[in-house]
Amino acid sequence: MGVVGALADAINTREDGLRLLLTILAGYPLALIHRSFFVKQSPTVQHIFFVIAGVSLYFFNCGTAIYHSLLSTLFAYLITNFIGGKTESIIAAHVAFLGHMLVGYWFAESDQYDITWTTPFCIMVIRYIGLVMDVYDGHNYESAKPDQKLTGIRDKPSLLEIAAFGYFFAGTFVGPQFTLQRFRSFVNGEFLDEKKEVRASGMMPSLGRFVAGVAYMVIHQWGAVWIPAPDYFHSQEYLNLSFLWRWTWVAIWFRLTMYRYCAAWLITEGAAILAGISYNGKDENGEDKWDGTRDLHIGKWELGMDYTSVVESFNVGTNTFAKKYETRKYFLSINNHLFRRMRWMNSKMGAQFATLMYLAIWHGYHLGYFLLFIFEMACMLAQEQFYTIIKRLPSLRSLLDQPWTHPFKILFGRIVMTYSMGFAFLTFGLIKKEIWWGPVKSLYFVGFIIYFLVWPILFQVLIRVLPREKKAKVEGENTSKSATPSEKKKEL
Questions:
Q1: Which has the closest alpha carbon to 380: 437, 424, 317, 436?
Q2: Nearest CA to 65 among 100, 30, 26, 24?
Q3: What pairs with residue 296 in β-bridges?
Q4: DSSP code of 294?
């Protein structure tokens, strides 16, 4: 037994999980080393440092399975340098990266939450696929959409630069995702202050993300002891509870389990801020912003009152890869790699569904992953329909606009979202159908019944009996509904 294994036994935790945590924490001393000795060096020297540090961490975390990432880095170089800019490059990227990962899932997945070489590799898959797409946009710059031009890469990256981009210590294991454009700006010193030093203003934000991440980790560890899933959800003690209490315990477990991911995102983001890659220009008051690699919006996650705010609050880097997010003054998030490239479908809902299915298969083969993302889409659709109903009730809308109703709206939204997401998360968090089927059945499939049966029927009834909006607004809606295919594409 090695040192890490002995330490894992001493603190009663899994060795693979401890190795991943130590790998993430290593980002802080490495960030200090970089900002102290390498930040003023040439891009080549910095790239070499990033590769050595990243490969070392990968070997510590994955052992000899590191060859998967090395092979993918070579593929990324070959694709971007020899067929970059061609449609074939996009196909080749998905075969070489996503296909590689799916084969790995087939052999590495088990009945538990797996921390294997595929855990950091899935981050590299998205990064390299995004890189190939950005090179494609750069080589087709004149025909690219405005949002694609912002992150397009017009010159071919070298093998060393690609390796440094893929193995950067504050982003290669659990995120955050960022573009090669941002990485280049960071390496070239564009984020430094007037003295060509890493901005000191990032110290406190880095510390804040680290402390928040540790807090979330402690709460998660306590929760894992308090609610030992999946055993508890199959116990007679749980099954003897009333329906409402069973659902409540599932909702609590969902929140406590999600804190594991929140902790990882916050801790690694703190390292990214400390390194300086998270610099994002100035705010309206002239203060430095450090949200360039934001992966968790704590306020939205804890206080968001609808599905949109909560979905946009966590795993921002991966969601940004799949969708379109707000652009920044200096550099942009990874946007439009999936969702906005589906303009050809002429259907926003179709593009959303395809994007969510892509994210589901990116997570793995388990049925629960697909059910979770389908459920997410149903929740988002129900939310839009709910807001449509409110618009048809001027008195209710006027009441809800009153400031004193805001706490009640937050409370209502939090209850609906937490219970709904808790139910859906059973199929994701418990992994195997044989494990989550019993707990889902114990809740009488309530989430599926509400969002796939009761609400769709209720909405159709309400939309027919409630008065329409004023004529001017209705005409506006009709104009929108009769939009041309090209106009519908712009909506995406």
A1: 424
A2: 100
A3: 314
A4: -
- Between vectors from CA 87 to CA 84 and to CA 88, what angle results, nearest 5°? 75
Token output for 289: 């912003």
Per DSSP, 96 falls in state: I
Q: Alpha-carbon distance 121 to 292, whole Å?
A: 22
Residue 95, number of CB atoms within 10 A of its CB: 12
pLDDT in tens, 63-90: 999 999 999 999 999 999 999 999 999 9
The whole-model pTM stands at: 0.89
Closest-CA residue to 66 (of 167, 150, 196, 197): 167
**Mean pLDDT computed over 359-372:** 91
Q: Give the Cα separation of 302 and 148 in Å (integer).
A: 32
**Coil, helix or strand for 12?**
coil
Q: Which residue, 93, 19, 28, 2, is CA-closest to 58?
A: 19
Instruction: Report how far residue 437's alpha carbon sits from residue 419's, in angstroms, rounded to the nearest whole number.
Output: 18
* Cβ–Cβ under 8 Å, residues 451 and 379: yes
54: number of CA atoms within 13 Å, CB side?
Answer: 27
User: How many angstroms separate the CA atoms of 8 and 380, rounded?
Assistant: 41
Catalytic residues: 315, 363
Angle at CA of residue 70, ends 69 and 71, nearest 5°: 90
Q: Tell me the backbone φ, ψ of residue 288, rounded to 5 degrees.
A: -65, 140
SS3 state of residue 411: helix
Q: Which 3 state secondary structure label does DSSP give 169?
A: coil
C-alpha angle 196-199-200 in degrees, rounded to nearest 5: 130
Task: Give the amino acid at 323.
Answer: K
The average confidence (pLDDT) of the chain is 88
